[in-house]
From TrEMBL, chain A:
PANTHER family: LACTATE UTILIZATION PROTEIN B. The keyword Phosphoprotein does not apply. Pfam families: Fer4_8, LUD_dom, LutB_C. This is L-lactate dehydrogenase complex protein LldF. Residues 315-384 form the 4Fe-4S ferredoxin-type domain. InterPro entries: 4Fe4S_Fe-S-bd (IPR017896), 4Fe4S_Fe_S_CS (IPR017900), FTHF_cligase-like_sf (IPR024185), Helical_ferredxn (IPR009051), LUD_dom (IPR003741), LutB/LldF (IPR004452), LutB_C (IPR024569), NagB/RpiA_transferase-like (IPR037171). Residues 73-297 form the LUD domain. The keyword Ribosomal protein does not apply. One of its GO terms (molecular function) is metal ion binding. PROSITE patterns: 4FE4S_FER_1 (PS00198).
From TrEMBL, chain B:
Residues 103-216 form the LUD domain. This is L-lactate dehydrogenase complex protein LldG. Transmembrane segments: none annotated. It holds the Pfam family LUD_dom. Residues 13-33 are annotated as: Disordered. It comes from the Bacteria. The lineage of its organism: Bacteria, Bacillati, Actinomycetota, Actinomycetes, Kitasatosporales. It comes from Streptomyces spectabilis. Signal peptide: none annotated. Coiled coil: none annotated.
Amino acid sequence: MSGTFVGMPAFPEAARAAVGDATLRANLRHATHTIRDKRARAVAELDDWARLREAGKRIKDHTLRHLDRYLLRLEEAVTAAGGTVHWAADAAEANRIVTRLVQETGESEVVKVKSMATQEIGLNEALEAAGVRAYETDLAELIVQLGHDRPSHILVPAIHRNRGEIRDIFRAEMGRWGRPAPEGLTDTPAELAEAARLHLREKFLRARVGISGANFMVAETGTLVVVESEGNGRMCLTLPETLISVVGVEKVVPTWRDLEVFLQTLPRSSTAERMNPYTSTWTGTTDSDGPRAFHLVLLDNGRTDTLADEVGRQALRCIRCSACLNVCPVYERAGGHAYGSVYPGPIGAILSPQLRGTASAVDASLPYASSLCGACYEVCPVAIDIPEVLVHLRERVVEGGEVTRRGVRVRLRPAKGHAAERAAMRAARWVFGHPGALRAGQRLASRTRAVHPRTLPGPGRAWSATRDLPPVPAEPFRDWWRRTHGEGSGA
Amino acid sequence: MSGRDVILGRIRRALGPEPDDAQDPHAGYESAVPRDYLREHGTRGEDATVDLLAENLADYRALVHRTDADGLAELLARLLAARGTRTVLVPPGLPRWWLATADATRVPDRAAHTARDLDRVDSVVTGCAVAVAETGTLVLDGSPDQGRRRITLVPDHHVCVVRVPDQVVASVPLALERLDPRRPLTWISGPSATSDIELDRVEGVHGPRTLEVVLVSGV
């Protein structure tokens, strides 16, 4: 995955900076609490939610277990319906294919539907380098693009911005990209949305190439599905002459009927609506309705490496609803940028280190960007056990082991920074195995409470830098038990 | 080696040999996925299902009207007049009598129309393929009474006529059964909306800002 934000510090440093930003925390708190309460109500309307969740999980697991067959079936169906299928093993190959396809149309600008896959591969930057301007048309993506900013949420990329900040961005930047913001633009959401409508409409009406992702691809029929709210998706999917969709290989589902599960669980989990305002489905091309040329670029970019890990594979079930972000206490305080990836929050903490490997400091730190409270697993509509994968990845970071990178099995060495942790764990193992030593140590710790430092010295600093040291009680629990329950009452 | 061979090779190495029952993985598919979720939520009669559709459409700020065959033309004429509509897009298969009394100039749905041409039209009137009561959703499938996907997108005012009760189903699973995936489908739940600014819902960003739904019986 080339979507690493360049120069991004590891999660603990980035999070510390973000946690100190009061505006950011207020914006995030407001947004995540609003949506998590609404989501709970939307889910409660369906009394078969648990069964839908289980079905969604099984559909995805089955598809992943036979992924090669379903992709071939999809390719056949898309081709039969008049589309062209391309396969991209990594970001660079995907960007090359899309750039070539755009250049073959002779156009120098494209309109884009919000898409995680194209964010992940850095498509806009690759097109820019080839002299093609890519316009984001989702309102939140527009705010991010105009603000020279990065997305911080899967569903609401500009969740970290409040209305005042958005008005300032529109006033300052719209004119440089096309139609300027209206005179006297205020910060009411309705006026801001109207400004975006006017600014983008002129781009939609002249666009000849559209680029999208897809939420689902149906293998049996070759149908692609895009779920959205604003209508910008419909604009990009139907007005241009050429449509290019870049889609991760894990987005395939076997049958048309499978959509009955996901079209119920996705909107309620993501925007907390019974149904999102617009869903578009298309199967290849249709005479005189919509684009005349349709290209599907199937993207690997670390997904097959993730597939090779039997514990971590479940991250590929993700339907990008972002419910896990909205309930996560860590995300709520640290914000999306701290995760150093287009996939923030709990799902990002397990997806990014698998797609990219754990070689960089930020990726090695992501499995630790969690309190393991389990709220993310609870809300996940495809039952991804995120805490399980986090623990699995922590073990890999610390202990090393076999992983697959770019299709090749490699042996990962234990991470250097964790030598002190390993030593501490070895020591702990010895101490817990020797009750006398444990008792002596605890009593000593209690008696010296007054002089304990607030951070640990030496290699322990890495641990205490991101945590408050727990206070030591005045009396060890075992002593207290013996004193209050008597010698003979212990279990 | 092509990207295709690289990816398929990686997948096969990642998964290892397939389980024995996987000669045709699809044969085992229905037993691999439990379908014990509900086909619809609750039991309602036809009338109650139509009422629920109206309620959920209104909840997402669509304007809902009800009439019968005798009142349809007059109602449509009134809705267009109320908005000051001068030009109205008409799909090729829309029954002519629906707009028999409307004053607005009819603009046929032609392939030669550019997006800019459509942007100058005030309103569009269409039928629909199926409507989903539980979610307040209309589905268009490009049939002659609905026209191309773009005609219900670019104009700012969309009037959609739903024949009740025969075009109404209770749930998403029942809707998918009725639809042909080879057709381009547009599912519409309320007017265009965004929640991107502080998660405040605002109607009307890029699609029609006003969606009016006419539930017509006896047609």
